[in-house]
Amino acid sequence: MILAIDSRFKNVGRMMSWGVQIEPGSPIFENPEKFGAVTDRKTFMDFYKIHSGKASDTYSALGYSIENYFLDGVLYSPEEFSEKIMKIKCADFCFLHNNCASYNLPFYGRMTCRARELKFKLKGFGAGKYKNMARPEFK
What we know:
Distance between the termini: 37 Å
Largest sheet: 2 strands, antiparallel
Order of helices and strands: HHEHEHH
Number of helices: 5
Structural class: mainly alpha
Radius of gyration: 17 Å
Number of domains: 1
Shape: globular
Number of strands: 2
Strand content: under 5%
Oligomer: single chain
């Protein structure tokens, strides 16, 4: 899809793909049953906990799951649903580039991501630092 857009529209500077989080007051938060969704957020404090602390997750903790979204008949937990969405995003829509004004094709984006991960790991930073940390916001 990225190649098709890039070849057809010459003035595109950067393409990015983001998972859409549930927001307080949004229709899917106020009435999840109407959208076939299950949410792990019931109060404003649930949103606050997700977005605070060392283990905060601003972009990939979507906060909901939709039954049969992946056409497998399964209703995943919101955490599992978010993980599956992020894996698809990384595999098919990764845009990471060393020059933040540009973008990569997914293959090169994943290579950039792996290089950054290694760099942070060697310096003692990154997700590995928190890998075995309890995630109370998912409780």
